[in-house]
Design brief:
nine-stranded mixed sheet, 179 residues, alpha+beta
């Protein structure tokens, strides 16, 4: 595994959804909180690492204190990957959130696939979801893939993040989201 640095380019990439004109920059604020590690989580590093699920057969794994990135070779729409994330996180006391726990409706993490435009051209399919954990903390995962059919066998990009309960409260206050 490779440790992620705070200035990673994957967090700076701008992706604008074609349907709702959301930007990936809306997630950069969240990512900066994830990467800062300044708030106490109430969980050990090992517990946080366990919540940042790395699935079997993952490749190109990169991990930091509150985030993980890897690739999966499953084709879109990644049903097995999504099911495995749900099952592994449920065993650790986290339940899938029906609505984005950090942003006011309609939110970004809606557990659906959206087609997004990429900076520089082309499109990508993007899925974002969150899990509410028993201590009030949140685990997020996003999965992206090039437009279906555009690249046969294109790997899924999986990114996970951990947000402590205190960070969740701070973000909710800033976005006016309710639990």
């Amino acid at each position: 595994m490779t440790r992620l640095d705070r200035g990673d380019e994957w967090l700076k990439a701008v992706i604008t959804t074609s349907r709702r004109r959301w930007t990936w920059r809306a997630c950069v604020g969240l990512a900066s909180v994830l990467l800062s590690g300044s708030c106490s989580s109430g969980r050990s590093e090992r517990e946080i690492s366990d919540l940042l699920v790395v699935l079997p057969h993952a490749s190109e794994i990169q991990a930091g204190p509150h985030q993980v990135l890897y690739r999966m070779s499953e084709p879109y729409p990644a049903a097995s990957t999504l099911k495995a994330l749900d099952e592994r996180l449920a065993r650790q006391g986290c339940r899938a959130a029906d609505e984005d726990p950090l942003n006011a409706p309609p939110g970004l993490m809606r557990r659906t696939w959206d087609e997004v435009d990429q900076k520089g051209g082309g499109t990508r399919q993007l899925w974002m979801g969150a899990w509410l954990c028993d201590r009030g903390d949140v685990v997020t995962f996003s999965i992206s893939v090039a437009e279906p059919g555009a690249h046969a066998g294109w790997p899924l990009g999986v990114a996970g993040g951990y947000i402590s309960a205190s960070q969740v409260q701070t973000l909710r206050a800033k976005t006016r989201a309710t639990p």
